Amino acid sequence: MKRLSCLALMCVAMTAGAAEDFDYVRAVPAEAGLVVIDARPSADCGAKSLAGARCLPAADFLGPHNRLPNARDLLWLLGTAGLTGAEDVLVVGAEAQARDFVAGLLFVAGQKRVRVLAEPVGRQLAKDAGPGRERGMTREAVFAAPMRDGLLLLRDELRDELRAMKAPLLDGRAQEEYWGETARAARAGHLPGAISLPAAQLRAALDPAAARPVLPEGAAVAYAHDAYEGLAYLTLLVAGHGVAAKLYAEGWAEWAADGALPADAVSHPERAQPVVAKSQSAQHGGARQGTKLAAGLALLLTAFAFGWWAAKRRTA
């Protein structure tokens, strides 16, 4: 089975008709059989959630440095929440990026239909709302839906296609990162030819009263900082704005780590000195100051002793 980290899941493309099964809603649909997925932390979901909600926090999918699980572990995890992939699900949450990450991951994994509640779920909770259902430690169902991985875009493929890239390349990070002013990776900057279209701008445009952003027509390639932010960005593009986008999910974090890969607006963050070195430097500096002070004190005492001896001799 293919691994998800940039082999099957993390470098995923959305097909042109994807938005029909993947969209935002502003109210909880009154439909029989709808399965609610609560992406908030387990403690919050377990305390109070929508009726029948299943707790599936974003953190359950993430390893160190936002690493995603492999395909086998992901399917097992979804099974512990009782999902087979055939359900219509509504993803709710409190923090938008975590909610959209879970929604994007579910859709990419093959969930039949995924809708996203566009406002914090707390506004929908009644005073007498009951606890959400936390996932089990063992698998309750077999997640058998085929993944939506018909078009994959790996790092090396993206590198080769940059020379003749016809589809727009969208950078979902903040403009400060895009222009190399701030960095969370080995290098700052952006992929060659990328257009800055920050996730924050797309999220603000979900408000019906907000101005609509200028979006590419047809297919596009998207990336953000890493897989966590990338899948959330993909949700914004596809479910929120109907853009048929491919995802280079490893994002700038992976691209920047290879200094041989091309980039624009490149800058290099200064490396901080190790804490131990700073500590040793401070210790050496303090020792030098102490030595100077001791030498000065000794000189002062010597001068005082000589003056006392000379005065005593004159009076003798």
SSE inventory with pairings:
Blueprint: E1 22-25, E2 35-38, H1 42-47, E3 54-55, H2 71-80, E4 88-92, H3 96-109, E5 113-117, E6 133-134, H4 155-161, E7 169-171, H5 175-178, E8 188-190, E9 195-196, H6 199-204, E10 219-223, H7 227-241, E11 244-247, H8 251-257, E12 264-267, H9 275-315
Parallel strand pairs: 1-5, 2-3, 2-4, 3-6, 4-5, 7-9, 7-10, 10-11
Antiparallel strand pairs: 8-12
Helix pairs in contact: 3-7
List keywords for this structure.
six-stranded parallel beta sheet, alpha/beta, 3 domains, 9 helices, 316 residues, Oxidized Rhodanese, domain 1, 12 strands, disordered N terminus
Please characterize this protein's 3D structure.
- With 316 residues, the chain is an alpha/beta fold.
- The chain has three domains: 18-134, Rhodanese-like domain (Oxidized Rhodanese, domain 1, 3-Layer(aba) Sandwich); 155-267, Oxidized Rhodanese, domain 1; 274-316.
- Helices cover 35% and strands 14% of the residues.
- The protein contains nine helices and twelve strands.
- The chain has helices spanning 42-47, 71-80, 96-109, 155-161, 175-178, 199-204, 227-241, 251-257, 275-315, and strands spanning 22-25, 35-38, 54-55, 88-92, 113-117, 133-134, 169-171, 188-190, 195-196, 219-223, 244-247, 264-267.
- The strands form three sheets. Strands 1-5-4-2-3-6 form a six-stranded parallel β-sheet. Strands 9-7-10-11 form a four-stranded parallel β-sheet, covered by helices on one side. The chain has a two-stranded antiparallel ribbon with strand order 8-12.
- The longest helix is centred in the C-terminal third of the chain and has 41 residues, at 275-315.
- The chain is globular.
- The chain starts with 21 loop residues before the first strand and ends with a helix.
